[in-house]
Amino acid sequence: MTTNRQVLFVNRPRGWVSEDNFRMVESPLPSPTQGQVLVRNHWLSLDPYMRGRMDAGKSYAKGAELGEVMVGGTVGEVMESKSPKFKTGDMVAGALGWQEYGVSDASGLAKIDTSIGPASYYLGILGMPGVTAWMGLLEIAQPKEGETVVVSAASGAVGGAVGQIARIKGCRAVGIAGGKAKCDYVTGELGFDDCVDYKAGGLDADLQAAAPAGIDVCFENVGGEVFDAVLRQMNPFSRIALCGLVSQYNLTEPYAMKNLRSILVNRVRMQGFIVSDRLDLWPRARAELAGWLKAGKLKCRESVAHGLEQAPKAFIGMLKGENFGKQLVKLV
Amino acid sequence: MTTNRQVLFVNRPRGWVSEDNFRMVESPLPSPTQGQVLVRNHWLSLDPYMRGRMDAGKSYAKGAELGEVMVGGTVGEVMESKSPKFKTGDMVAGALGWQEYGVSDASGLAKIDTSIGPASYYLGILGMPGVTAWMGLLEIAQPKEGETVVVSAASGAVGGAVGQIARIKGCRAVGIAGGKAKCDYVTGELGFDDCVDYKAGGLDADLQAAAPAGIDVCFENVGGEVFDAVLRQMNPFSRIALCGLVSQYNLTEPYAMKNLRSILVNRVRMQGFIVSDRLDLWPRARAELAGWLKAGKLKCRESVAHGLEQAPKAFIGMLKGENFGKQLVKLV
């Protein structure tokens, strides 16, 4: 093998992402220099936050550069190491982007322990999405036993974990998801107490029925009209962990929120957060997640696309909510 | 004197408050029963939150009841006491509403010390507005030295105190107010570093010029378009103390916020608060405010209407932002 297939980010979307925003190329296999490692990517992670990186505007992470390999989390195998920290055959998590092979400084990689869970889990329940759920719920929103936790995009990688952790902590977990199949997955497979189908046409009433004592914690992944409806039913002294606004990322004009007054009237604490701001918490989060996983208290599903060429299509599908659980691309 | 003049709240406003929402009546002078106190009101407090109490909808405080005396804070003199806690001649703060005389259980009154400041100050800088400024800024928003604090309704009783306390704490204080006269008052008399006139037609650029390093703390009293503009310029890890939304109280449809994404991208913490939730903090707040007042570090202006019959008009004027500093009605 002497060539590396890559997906480049070639033009910025206006509104919805399209496959035209990307281009597949072949390039020579890179060689690691001193201190570097060559990794063969086994899995690509597709996550909503990556949409933000495609915009030119200010976001919390450095934007994706036009003409460069599309950014994203990866898990793979060390093929060649010029770093004392890794040896050939090690499985590592990193952010090598949409390509079959990548070279990285050792500092950008972390060895993973596949005895705890399969390698792909380090992009899901044991990786960024799982730690995001843990951190947003337990560190930011801090639910108390018996409280009602509502989470949007409940069938996604983050949302699915949030509700299950809420249940572990003795809370009532209410999901919001689009369509009956997803809601069935959320209540059936993931064990949430209830799930509201926001596409069913009775959001306010359905939310009230699912959270009859009001909402104490909102873990917000979606934004827009669904979030506006949640705001109406927040309890006094409730908390909102603002994790994402995926419904807004592909709009040229954002949805205009109407129920901000609820934050004043109910003395709500709303906090935006990014999981990478608190790297100090990752070991503890991951250890707890691994423990719950082993004890059978945490379940997760993966949606897998096969082959690098499927990455753009799978990414767009994920942004449209076509996936169940964690969306991955399998390369090997 | 055997009669008591009162202003009753007789019908709920739809949109803007009008004088028709009130009616002046005379009634017999009330008599205190055992444990009660008869107070002659010297000053009525007019505050934005009172608009919320006129709505039938859910708010943070019990609504004003139709046919009853209009609610509101008061300062007055004890005329007759059947409580061991007060004696004739004591000056007391309470919430006896829009009337010349009121009867109250001793628990609803607090003796005030007019050696620290004039009685009216206990409705302003030494009362609810001053403590609100102190609590929202120092407990909720927690500015650090050198940070930029932006406060809307900066020429009002709360806003004026916020900026001055921010300066005392070593912050850059930027006000937002409507019109040149108010901005001159805010920078001149109150000593803010800068003040943006939101009516001047260049809000975004003017705000950027006044807060060139971005906004670290927003003390929000107004909401609506002005708040939306502030959101655009919040710094990473900035804080918003959400104290009021006075621009919205008289609208039948709220302004629809567009820049919520800034809270996510910048990991902003936004918290609604009500000063009466933390009565434990009042003594410390009042002691600090009194100290700054004595040291000449805190200034305040009062806008005074004369006579009970002026209360409705002055209240409407205050909601429209016609006052400078604390709006009062002087009865005695």
Write the layout of secondary structure elements.
Two copies of one chain form a homodimer.
Chain A: E1 3-9, E2 22-28, E3 36-46, H1 49-53, E4 74-81, E5 91-94, E6 101-105, E7 110-111, H2 128-141, E8 148-152, H3 157-168, E9 172-177, H4 180-189, E10 194-197, H5 203-210, E11 215-220, H6 224-231, E12 234-242, H7 261-265, E13 269-272, H8 282-294, E14 302-306, H9 311-319, E15 326-330
Parallel strand pairs in A: 8-9, 8-11, 9-10, 11-12, 12-13, 14-15
Antiparallel strand pairs in A: 1-2, 3-4, 3-6, 3-15, 4-5, 5-7
Helix pairs in contact in A: 2-3, 2-8
Short overview:
Chain A is α/β, with parallel strands linked by helices and 332 residues long. Chain A has helices at 49-53, 128-141, 157-168, 180-189, 203-210, 224-231, 261-265, 282-294, 311-319, and strands at 3-9, 22-28, 36-46, 74-81, 91-94, 101-105, 110-111, 148-152, 172-177, 194-197, 215-220, 234-242, 269-272, 302-306, 326-330.
If you had to describe this structure to a student in words, what would you say it looks like?
Two copies of one chain form a homodimer. The first copy, chain A, has two domains: 3-124 and 301-330, Medium-chain alcohol dehydrogenases, catalytic domain (Quinone Oxidoreductase, Chain A, domain 1, Alpha-Beta Complex); 128-276, Rossmann fold (3-Layer(aba) Sandwich), CATH 3.40.50.720. In chain A, strand 8 (148-152), helix 3 (157-168) and strand 9 form a beta-alpha-beta unit. The two termini of chain A are 14 Å apart. By secondary structure, chain A is of the alpha/beta class. The first copy, chain A, has helices at 49-53, 128-141, 157-168, 180-189, 203-210, 224-231, 261-265, 282-294, 311-319; strands at 3-9, 22-28, 36-46, 74-81, 91-94, 101-105, 110-111, 148-152, 172-177, 194-197, 215-220, 234-242, 269-272, 302-306, 326-330. Chain A is globular. In chain A, strands 3, 4, 5, 6, 7, 14 and 15 form a seven-stranded mixed β-sheet that branches. Chain A has a six-stranded parallel β-sheet with strand order 10-9-8-11-12-13, sandwiched between helices. Helices cover 25% and strands 27% of the residues of chain A. At the A-B interface, helix 7 and strand 13 of A face helix 7 and strand 13 of B. Strand 13 of chain A pairs antiparallel with strand 13 of chain B, so a sheet runs across the interface.
